[in-house]
Amino acid sequence: MLKNFEPNKIFLITSRAPKYVLFLFIIIISIGLIEALILSPEDYIQGHSVRIMYVHVPSAWIALGTFSTIAILSFLIIIFKIKSFILIAKSLAPAGLVFNIIALVTGSIWGKPTWGTWWAWDARITSMLILALFYIIYILAWRIYEDKEKIHKITAFIAILGVINVPIIKYSVDWWSTLHQPASVNIFSGTSIHSSMIIPLALMTAAFALFSIMIFLMKYNTELIKIKNKGLDRL
Amino acid sequence: MFGKKVKLRLLFLSFIFLILVLTVFLILKSLEENVVYFISPTEIKNLSEIDSKEKVRVGGMVKKDTIKLNQNEISFVITDFKNDINVIYSGAVPNLFSEEKGVVAEGYLKDRSFFNADKILAKHDENYMPPEVKEALEKNK
């Protein structure tokens, strides 16, 4: 299995795949945006400002999912010393941070017309800000640390420490009184979003997922080029 | 199944992770008062003493038929369906502020049943639907 992680083979995939992913992304985001901005209905109390949801919610999901993936990979890196996962985890972080910031900014823009404030220090928003800080610390750690052997462990520990925050974000709206409303989409008990609004939400989530996969592949590709340039033939 | 070293690392990491989770839990537990964004009218009723100089946030539902507009003042009642609190506020309210909807008022307590707000935030619920669906739901009630 690990033979498939030979940089040369992966490099062939990562250097070609992004353009196909980009192609797919453009198709889905076009349909998604038409659905979200034109075809989907207004909300019964929020009116048109509900449309911010189609950017805000998928971004938050991607940010949480990406960080969880980094943490799981980091866990495997530390326990099983699977070296091929190191660069994968490292390359996932930038896209996750971008979507985390998008979630915070769109949340702020959405908060003004609905809640009446740009920002509130409630549990959901604050924990989401902390996730962004963890992303930043994780990415910075990769940049500032010289010791190659140590940095794998340090960044992995940052990710594992940070993942404690993920369930806190998820359940913050249930555990404490927050300004942020409770979750609308629940795997077990269904959703309180009308079906006509679920379609654009799903499309936008797929589009953002594709975009972050593309950014990941490009970042991974550059990491592989760096290794190639150093003349190493293994990860 | 796993090598000895792997087992040791697994044990060590799980142990550290558990301690970290416990630490975070205890920190959050002891900070609970600061983590909650607002308190309910019932919690205000149960306060042992009232500090009229301390800023607090009260949250709940705007009680039906209690919104009154005077010259440049608006007054309404926040309820958690057990206890009520009267709120007085002067200024603009957010678009989503209305009767029987969630609200968070920030300001100072006069006493256990009177609140001077200097900021009003609307809180909305997790339901999203088109207006036609809402009307249909209302009709079927």
Report on this model:
The complex is a heterodimer of chains A (235) and B (141). By secondary structure, chain A is an all-alpha fold. In chain A, 74% of the residues lie in helices and 2% in strands. Chain A contains seven helices and two strands. Chain A has a two-stranded antiparallel sheet. Chain A starts with 6 loop residues before the first helix and ends in a 6-residue tail after the last helix. The model of chain A has no long low-confidence stretch (mean pLDDT 90). Chain B has 141 residues and is an alpha+beta fold. Chain B folds into two domains: 30 residues; 87 residues, Beta Barrel (OB fold (Dihydrolipoamide Acetyltransferase, E2P)). Helices cover 33% and strands 31% of the residues of chain B. In chain B, strands 1-3-4-6-5 form a five-stranded mixed barrel. The longest helix of chain B is centred in the N-terminal third of the chain and has 27 residues. Chains A and B meet through helix 2 of A and helix 1, strand 6 and helix 4 of B.
Overall 3D geometry of chain A? globular
CATH superfamily of the largest domain in chain B: Nucleic acid-binding proteins
Greatest contact between two chains = A-B, 38 and 40 residues
DSSP strand count of chain B: 6
Shape type of chain B: flat
CATH-level-2 architecture of the largest domain in chain B: Beta Barrel
Rg of chain B computed from alpha carbons, rounded to a whole number of angstroms:
23 Å
* Separation of the first and last Cα atoms of chain B: 60 Å
Helix segment tally of chain A: 7
Please indicate the percent range of residues of chain A in DSSP E strands (runs of 2 or more): under 5%
How many individual domains of chain A?
1
Query: Which CATH class of the largest domain in chain B applies here?
Result: Mainly Beta
The largest sheet of chain A is: 2 strands, antiparallel
- Largest beta sheet of chain B, briefly? 5 strands, mixed, barrel
In N-to-C order, the SSE pattern of chain A is HHHHHHEEH
Q: What integer value in Å does the Rg of chain A equal?
A: 19 Å
User: CATH topology of the largest domain in chain B, which one?
Assistant: OB fold (Dihydrolipoamide Acetyltransferase, E2P)
Structural class per helix/strand content of chain B? alpha+beta
Structural class of chain A: mainly alpha
User: What sequence of helices (H) and strands (E) makes up the elements of chain B?
Assistant: HHHEEEEEEH
